[in-house]
Amino acid sequence: MMQTCPLCASPDTSGYHRDKQRDYLVCGQCSLVFVPAWQHLSAAEEKAVYDLHDNHGADSGYRRFLDRLCTPLRERLPTPARGLDFGCGPGPTLSLMLEEAGHRMALYDPFYAPDDAVWQCQYDVITATEVFEHLAHPGAEIERLVAHLHAGGWLGVMTKRVRSREAFATWHYIRDPTHVAFFADATFAWLGQRFGLNVELVDADVVLMQKP
Q1: Any transmembrane segments, and where (predicted)?
Q2: How do residues 7-55 score in pLDDT, each as one tens digit?
Q3: Buried-most residue among 4, 9, 14, 133 (CB within 10 A)?
């Protein structure tokens, strides 16, 4: 069974890969590779995986990992900026790093910080580190994020990108059962056109998008 693309809603989807656990479809319009909805974990199963994560603000290695997004954001943001760490997880860390640089950060996570009051504000920066690959409805979620950015604001994303069908077949990233959406360079180019964003591919898994 095919499924319309959860990012752009195109019906132009086809098989991309299959392993022993799941199927992976690709969108002919935006190049998103995604797991069909009926193969997603339940919310309880998904949270049980996240509860095993041990990331926290005192972990120097985790901070070095996040600094690949934090540094280019610090270079671009006015101080103080108002920001939102979207999908902050059980151990928010990037928000702490940006607060240490003089910015004011709010937190949102559907499991660990489900504070809908954050959607009453506009932000100079919204971060989503290792989040986009978990989104069951990336089109709706990204549209909401862009809508809550000020003009000139930045959406900072960390997610590993699809390179080729051959590399995908042996990619460790698809073995995580909570990963259901896989973005390519072409997917971010489509997002730039769809939402009028200026897109910078900063690193292999770091993308900055500015709202004009």
Answers
A1: none
A2: 999 999 999 999 999 999 999 999 999 999 999 999 999 999 999 887 7
A3: 133
In contact, 83 and 107? CB cutoff 8 Å? no
Helix (H) or strand (E) holding 86: strand 82-86
In a domain, 29, yes or no: yes
φ and ψ at 24, to 5 degrees?
-135, 125
CATH label of the domain that carries residue 154 = 3.40.50
18 SS3 class: strand
58 falls within a domain? yes
Strand partners, 113: 109
Q: 10 Å Cβ neighbour count for 61?
A: 8
Provide the 8-state DSSP code for 43.
H
Query: What total of structural domains would you count in the chain?
Result: 1
pLDDT at 54: 74
Amino acid at 181: A
Return all residues near 2 (Cβ < 8 A) that are at least 6 apart. 11, 13, 14, 25
Is 137 among the domain residues? yes
Neighbouring-strand partners of residue 207: 157, 201
Domain range enclosing 18? 13-210
**Does 3 map to a domain?**
no
Residue 167 corresponds to which tokens in the numbers above?
């590399």
Smallest CA-to-CA distance from 151 within 122, 128, 127 is with 122
Query: What is the biggest distance separating any 2 CA atoms in the chain, rounded to whole angstroms?
Result: 50
